[in-house]
């Protein structure tokens, strides 16, 4: 069995001004769409996290999202060995 490759983008998400009073709700909506939320900066209206590349583009369509910016360094790639691989 071949190893699986998961491409993840580290992103900074800018919350729209009209949703700043509901940052927790916006963060929850992002989680429900596969975003791993690392931090919520309420005073800045920024949510930082990571998301599978295949889901990143759809985030801009969510209510309350002004922008989704990929953080420098680009996506991180993880390699998962097959289940029968020896432990390293």
What's this, in brief?
This is Ketohydroxyglutarate aldolase. The protein has a single domain, classed as Alpha-Beta Plaits (2-Layer Sandwich).
What does this structure look like?
The chain has 88 residues and is α+β, with helices and mostly antiparallel strands. The mean pLDDT is 87. Strands 1, 2, 3, 4 and 5 form a five-stranded antiparallel sheet that branches. The longest helix has 10 residues, at 23-32. The protein has helices at 23-32, 53-56, and strands at residues 4-15, 36-41, 46-52, 65-70, 76-80. The protein is elongated and about 50 Å long. It has two helices and five strands. The chain has a single domain, classed as Alpha-Beta Plaits.
Spans of 5+ residues with little confidence (pLDDT < 50)?
none
CATH hierarchy: architecture: 2-Layer Sandwich
- How much of the sequence lies in strands comes to 35-45%
Count of alpha and pi helical runs: 2
CATH topology: Alpha-Beta Plaits
| Overall geometry | elongated
CATH domain class name: Alpha Beta
Q: Tell me the number of structural domains.
A: 1
Q: What structural class should be given to the helix and strand makeup?
A: alpha+beta
Strands, count: 5
Along the chain, the helix and strand elements come as EHEEHEE
Helix content: 10-25%
- Radius of gyration, rounded? 15 Å
- Looking at this structure, what is the CATH superfamily? Peptidase S8 propeptide/proteinase inhibitor I9
The major beta sheet can be summarized as: 5 strands, antiparallel
Distance between the ends = 17 Å
Mean pLDDT: 87
Protein name: Ketohydroxyglutarate aldolase
């Amino acid at each position: 069995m071949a190893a699986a490759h998961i491409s993840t983008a580290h992103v900074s998400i800018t919350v729209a001004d009209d949703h700043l009073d509901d940052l927790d709700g916006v963060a929850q909506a992002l989680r429900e769409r596969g975003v791993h939320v690392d931090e919520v900066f309420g005073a800045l209206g920024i949510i930082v996290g990571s998301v599978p590349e295949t889901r990143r583009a759809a985030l801009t369509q969510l209510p309350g999202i002004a922008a989704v910016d990929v953080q420098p360094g680009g996506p991180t790639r993880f390699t998962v060995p097959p289940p029968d691989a020896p432990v390293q």
